[in-house]
Amino acid sequence: MATPVTTTMARSQRNDNFIDKSFTVMADLILKVLPTDRRSKEAFAYYRDGMSAQADGEYAEAMENFAEALRLENDPNDRSWILYNMGLVHSSNGEHRQALEHYEQALALNAKMPQALNNIAVIYHHLGNQAEQRGEADAMDRYYSQAAEYWTRAIRLAPNNYLEAQNWLKTSGRGSIDVLI
User: Fold this and answer.
1) Angstrom distance (rounded) from CA 71 to CA 81
2) What is the pLDDT along the chain (181 residues), one digit of tens a residue?
3) Neighbours of 103 (CB within 10 A)
4) Backbone φ and ψ of 162, nearest 5°
5) If you ran DSSP here, which 8-state letter would residue 167 be given?
6) Are 156 and 179 within 8 A, CB to CB?
7) Cβ-contact 35, 47 below 8 angstroms
């Protein structure tokens, strides 16, 4: 009996639900119409497949696709979004240090990314909570100060967002008046 040959099918070719199929069709149409080079189109296809895998909770597959998209992509803004999504995957896995590294790399390419600033602040706030529970006052204060710094930057970029962070900054006394107005 012959051994069956298995081939890997791109995630975009095996999506089961209507929304994923619709997104894939629209993305493919955009790729065909946009005047961009083959490498950029291939990078976008990997990014799209990474986003789909991420949405399905298939984090290892998402990271593989994002890594390939990052290798192929030259545009700094597009690279920042790939790095941001890699940070999201690490955050979802509780890998805080790796998430922080990817968010910081994304910000180095695109400083006007309040989502990355917010996510960094969320991690530092979480680490502050953990330090507080362990009774480590110095570490708690350091992490909370870092959270306040990043939330302040995020709120300055997107003043109508991050209302919970704005409330925390007010109630904790860590926010400056120019951000909280």
Assistant:
1) 13
2) 443 333 344 555 555 555 555 655 665 555 556 656 788 889 998 999 999 999 999 999 999 999 999 999 999 999 999 999 999 999 999 999 999 999 999 999 999 999 999 999 999 999 999 999 999 999 999 999 999 999 999 999 999 999 999 999 999 999 875 655 5
3) 28
4) 60, 50
5) H
6) yes
7) no
The answer to whether 116 and 81 are in contact (CB under 8 A) is no
94 dihedral zone (left: phi>0; alpha: psi -120 to 50; beta): left
Contact criterion met (CB below 8 Å) for 120 and 104: yes
**Six-digit token string for 100:** 């922080």
Q: With beta carbons less than 8 A apart as the criterion, state whether 136 and 122 touch.
A: no
The CA distance from 132 to 40, in Å, is 46
100 and 120 in contact (C-beta within 8 Å)?
A: yes
Model confidence, pTM: 0.80
Single-letter amino acid code for the residue at 168: W
